[in-house]
Amino acid sequence: MYLCHPLIEHALEVLRAGTIGDIKHVQASYVADIAQFVNPSSKGALYNLGCYPMSLTYLVLAQFLTPQELMNFEVSAFGTRGEDGNICESSASFCFSGKVNAQLHSAETYGLKHGFTVLGSKGSLTFKTNPWLPNEQNALDVEIYESSHESINVQADGDAFFYQVRAVRQAFERGETSLASPRATHQLSEGVMKLLTEWERVTKA
């Protein structure tokens, strides 16, 4: 749902404009104490919460890498398992085609904390408010190394679910069978699932 919110398009516009230069690294984390509320068959933190930083990382990198480069990756990960046997916390290091690195972290047994920063050759972009639960008031920080710092407020008409419902309704009215990027496309969904399942496979827990 969050991919339908104006906050995401605004962040992508900053990146595509070259404000922070070439994308070098992504740092992303999402933790929340939700393990007691989820079905064990959901397979744990990576699919309950890790899907959010993973999907946003994929979307950001898809602006600069080809689909082939995105699927040419190496990953290593360490984590722990909960009482249900599923991964309840994991940290992963990805390298995409030897061009961009990403560090992702997720946990479902403590906290309520989000973090997403894109490091570029000239500066950085950080989501100050939760990128995965955007609402009417949202904020981005854009920093140019050793030069300037700007806080950007992104106002909206509602939360992510409001925009998701509207996007689906409009697509249906136009006779379309899928949404357009940056919303969840078939390609994005398939790519994210490939990354998540490999993250799960290599996690040493």
Give, in order, the helices and strands: HEHHEEEEEEEHHE
CATH homologous superfamily placement: Dihydrodipicolinate Reductase, domain 2
How is the quaternary structure best described? Answer: single chain
User: How many structurally independent domains?
Assistant: 1
CATH top level? Alpha Beta
Helix/strand structural class: alpha+beta
Question: How would a crystallographer describe the biggest sheet?
Answer: 9 strands, mixed
Compose a concise summary of this entry.
The protein is α+β, with helices and mostly antiparallel strands and about 200 residues long. The protein is built from 5 helices and 9 strands.
Question: Can you walk me through this structure?
Answer:
Strands 8-7-6-5-1-4-3-2-9 form a 9-stranded mixed sheet. A hairpin with a 3-residue loop joins strand 7 and strand 8 (148-155). The chain is globular. The protein has 205 residues and is of the alpha+beta class. The longest helix has 18 residues, at 45-62. It has one domain: Dihydrodipicolinate Reductase, domain 2 (2-Layer Sandwich). It has 5 helices and 9 strands.
